[in-house]
Amino acid sequence: MNLYLKIKKQWMILFLLCGVLFLNGCTLELPTPESLIAAPESNQELMQQKQMISEFLSKEERMIVPEINEIGTAYQYINLDEDDEKEIVVFYANKESNFVLGFMILDQREAGWQLLYKTTAYGTDIHYFSVQDLNLDGAPEFLLGVKTGYGAMKELYVYHLADSGLIDITSEDRIAYDQIVLAEPTDGQTMLVTARTDTTVLVGSSNITIYTYGNNMVYPVYNNTFDGYCSDMRFAKVNADTEGIYMAMRYNHYINMILLCETETGFTVAMEHPMPYDYEEMAGIELFGDINNDGILEVNSLWSPENNLSNRDYRDFVHVWLQWDGENGLTAISAILENRTDGYRFLIPVQWMDTLYYDFYTDGEIEWTEFYYENEERSFETVFSLAAVDQLVWQNMDDDVTDSIVVLGNHPTLNKVYIANIKTELFNEFQVNAEKLISCLQIEGGM
After folding, report:
1. Which of 94, 132, 229, 288 has its CA at a distance of 20 to 30 angstroms from the CA of residue 317?
2. Alpha-carbon distance 89 to 283, whole Å?
3. How many CA atoms lie within 13 A of 430 on its CB side?
4. Mean pLDDT over each residue of the chain, to the nearest integer
5. Reported pTM
């Protein structure tokens, strides 16, 4: 009897829920083609998607993730025919043959998912992949970069999508590269920029080639060899009126920054600027960035302390962001002392940099950053010092010490108090006070 009542109660609840849905005008929706090809939102959808894809792989094949891949997955969604329904590009490698790999394209038709195209390339891994309309004709080109297995050398396969299928336009002449970047000018067609490094000589050199695409051919429009190993390349807007290609040419212990810009007669070197550090050895330090979000790419240079008595890491140094001045130099637009561990950034006024020095030192439990200048008597005089201290340390400091120190702010979760010891309120006609230093301080999560 109890079991009968329990079942009856469950049926009544279900009946009431159906009635609520009906009265509110709700309907049950079946999956549409658009929702079926959307990126998976749950682990279950992800598993179902992978299961569907695996049906197009042979037992010797497995999915792999390209090395340069912002998505970080073995497949991605693209729209080849502008029908608002995306296709899936899948990257694969043959488990039985270490040198066979490629990508395939799946499309959803009325009968279900179908294999549209499948490419075969030869290498140990997929390094790079991009889909671009290189000649602006409305048909995409597929760029597949693979590691050849011969040292660090890589080869680029370029495929054109025609009515008959994918055409390998580099089948007779692969493009070898170590670094690759796409140059996508605001006005004009996309170009390929590659760097080939020669490590057989002591100094080393890098061959820079710029390719354009047309008539089912990829052909060079610029070629030059520079001293140094090209460790990074970026195409971007480099000042308010100009786009260009930055190339970081690495030597022992420093980098030579070269800027290529296009003119009416072709590409030319617009600037060379030595950088004092070997950024390749600095984990976590970005060489390029748009630090002020103005759409212009800046270069990061380190301003080193005079004495690093606390043995602070390069990441704690002042980072000076430089922007091309339109001639043969770089202009500082921002100087940032960043301490991610203590949760703050201090923006040093750029005007102070020409006459200001700084050091790191430790006094008891407090790690200070001291800024000083050379006065009229040609002796060094401290202007102010910065530090981040624990809340308890600050509370236990002597009253006579805290009287000479101002609080600039505090961290809401790290229990840090940011303090400054102002020694000189005026140096080289620059005013220094608590209000000025507070305006320079940025704290993660607020004040």
Report:
1. 229
2. 32
3. 20
4. 85
5. 0.82
Question: How far, in Å, are 233, 245, 322 from residue 260 at the CA level?
Answer: 10, 5, 16
Give me the pLDDT at residue 78, please: 86
Residue 18 and residue 10 in contact, taking contact as beta carbons nearer than 8 Å: no
Euclidean distance between CA atoms 253 and 255, whole angstroms: 7
Q: State whether residue 392 is helix, strand or coil.
A: helix
Residue 284 half-sphere exposure, CB side, CA atoms within 13 Å? 8
pLDDT per residue as tens digits for the range 14-53: 444 444 333 343 332 322 333 333 455 567 777 877 888 9
pLDDT of residue 424: 92
CA-based radius of gyration for the chain: 30
Of the pLDDT bands very low, low, confident and very high (cuts 50, 70, 90), residue 446 is low
Q: What phi and psi, each to the nearest 5 degrees, are found at residue 324?
A: -60, 135
Spatial CA neighbour of 114 closest among 88, 76, 85: 88
User: In residues, how long is the chain?
Assistant: 447
User: Quick one: tokens of 433?
Assistant: 């006070």
Number of H helices, E strands in the chain: 6, 32
Q: How far apart are CA 43 and CA 1, in angstroms?
A: 42
Q: Report residue 350's pLDDT band, with 50, 70 and 90 as the boundaries.
A: very high
Dihedral through CA 120, CA 121, CA 123, CA 128, nearest 10? -110
For every residue of 249-278, DSSP letters joined together read EE-SS-EEEEEEEEETTEEEEEEEEEESS-
